[in-house]
Amino acid sequence: MDHFLYRDGVLHAEDVPLPEIAARVGTPFYCYSAATLTRHYHLFDEALAGTDHLICYAMKANSNLAVVKLMGDLGAGVDVVSGGEYLKARAAGIPGERIVFSGVGKTRAEMRLALEGGIRQFNVESEPEMEALNEVALSMGAVAPITVRVNPDVDAQTHEKIATGKAENKFGIPIAKARAVYARAATLPGLKVVGIDVHIGSQLTSLEPFELAYAKVAELTRALRADGHSITRLDLGGGLGIPYERSNAAPPLPLEYGAMVRRVVGDLGCEIEIEPGRLIAGNAGILVSQVIYVKEGEGRNFLILDAAMNDLVRPAMYAAHHDIVPVIEPAPGVEQGAYDVVGPVCESGDTFAKSRMLPPLAEGDLVAFRSAGAYGAVMASEYNMRPLVPEVLVSGDHVAVIRERPSFDEMINRDTIPEWL
Ligand SMILES: *Cc1c(COP(=O)(O)O)cnc(C)c1O
Questions:
Q1: CA-closest candidate to residue 197, choices 116, 277, 101
Q2: For ligand 1, is residue 106 a contact (CB within 6 Å)?
């Protein structure tokens, strides 16, 4: 459920009609619902109620400062994957003790940054990283809390570009090697082992791969404890999928996920961390765009929008589906037609949907891409010298532009011409 609904025939974000925002901000723009973001956080919080837990919002899904602050105010921690995200989380008011640091290529500079500013744990992904972190911590007279991210060799049954838990993926340490790696960690005075981490991929639509992975983590927890390690935290990663197509079967709910987590790892007495990104932000955001032209082609009609692949890359990058709906509600029973929905960028990859059935649309009409709040604005670029798409947050009848569209002057002046040219 989200808070983008038709009221009196007009699509609203909570209490605000979208045409009002379009008139103020121009199109295209992202619009997020604070109530939906809040609701999704609470779904996870309730799913793990009664179990010691921390929800570490994976801010790479949507790292707008206002969104991260909203999460922090609800009590969430965050999962960061770069020094930049770490600094942004701090700027959004997230205390260091609620930040976990993931990623296969943390640099020494990023480690230093996090150790200086305060960090809950590093999720270490390789032995060279472990040695480097030990050195950095020792050089600062610090001790770095760590988990080791294990790769359980489980098929997440998701798009190949966002599967991370198979042996062939670059992530984590093979689970079979984990005991040896933990034994090494225990000898490094700059590190303190606190737990185990696993994250097998994104947009999972079944609980089975999670359960397989978590069962392996439970087994490893027992083995590591028998080896003398103190395992007090399990970071179970993110990855729960969302319904991108309303017509498809819905993925499992956080409540079902939470019940599975308790069943599989609940008896270990560990604090549970989870890192949801997409499920928190995905259906809490839409991308609103305007029809520039309707072009009649050979046997097909093109709906040419003012949004493009640089604003929302998921269809071009992952062949992802986004429901597209008109902002003005079509009359009931109106006949739909097939459109290829495209943007103005100069490549054929700039296609959002082929043969999509939509009600009749005309120049100037507004449409909304649903489920665009995660991996939308964060992946946007200025390809074709198109300004970075602005972002708007709505809460009840409050509207705020939380990232302005840059002006062409700003964009041009970011480049410099060398004096010798
Ligand atoms: C991307 C990522 C997440 C979030 O995944 P979602 O599918 O958005 O929930 C969590 N943890 C790590 C380590 C990630 O890389």
A1: 101
A2: no
Ranges of H-type helices in 266-327: 278-281, 314-318
E strands present in 63-159: 77-80, 99-101, 121-124, 144-151
Q: Is 40 touching ligand 1 by the criterion CB < 6 Å?
A: no
Q: Is the pLDDT of residue 349 over 90?
A: yes
Cα 161 to ligand 1 centroid, rounded to whole Å: 13
Distance between Cα 307 and ligand 1 center (Å): 26
- For 310, 319, 332, 363, 385, the CA distances from 349, given in Å and listed in that order, are 11, 10, 33, 22, 17
Distance, CA of 36 to CA of 272 (rounded, Å): 24
Please tell me the distance between residue 207's alpha carbon and the centre of ligand 1 in angstroms.
Answer: 16
Which residues make up each annotated binding site for pyridoxal 5'-phosphate?
Answer: 239, 275-278, 375
CATH topology of domain 34-280: TIM Barrel (3.20.20)
Look up the pTM and report it: 0.97
Binding site feature residues: 239, 275-278, 314, 318, 347, 375
Q: Fold for domain 4-31+282-412?
A: Lyase, Ornithine Decarboxylase; Chain A, domain 1 (2.40.37)
**What pLDDT sits at residue 316?**
96
Report the run of H or E that residue 108 belongs to, with start and end.
Answer: helix 108-117
**Residue 406 and residue 388: Cα distance in Å, rounded?**
7
Q: Whose alpha carbon is nearest atom 3 of ligand 1?
A: 238
Q: Which two tokens stand for residue 52?
A: 């010691």
* Phi, psi (rounded to 5 degrees) for 105: -130, 45
Does the pLDDT value for residue 1 go beyond 70? Answer: no
Kindly report, residue by residue over 166-210, the tens digit of the pLDDT.
888 888 999 999 999 999 999 999 999 999 999 999 999 999 999
What distance in Å separates the CA atoms of residue 357 and residue 343, rounded to the nearest whole number? 17
* Residue 246 and residue 334 in contact, taking contact as beta carbons nearer than 8 Å: no
Tell the residue number behind the tokens 């929800």, with chain if given. 55
Pocket test for ligand 1, best of 60, 124, 257 (most atoms within 8 A of CB): 60
Active site residue 56: no
For residue 387, cis peptide bond before it (omega within 30 degrees of 0): no
Looking at the chain, the domain(s) classified CATH 3.20.20.10 span 34-280
Give me ligand 1 centre to Cα 202, in Å.
6
- pLDDT at residue 97, as a whole number: 98
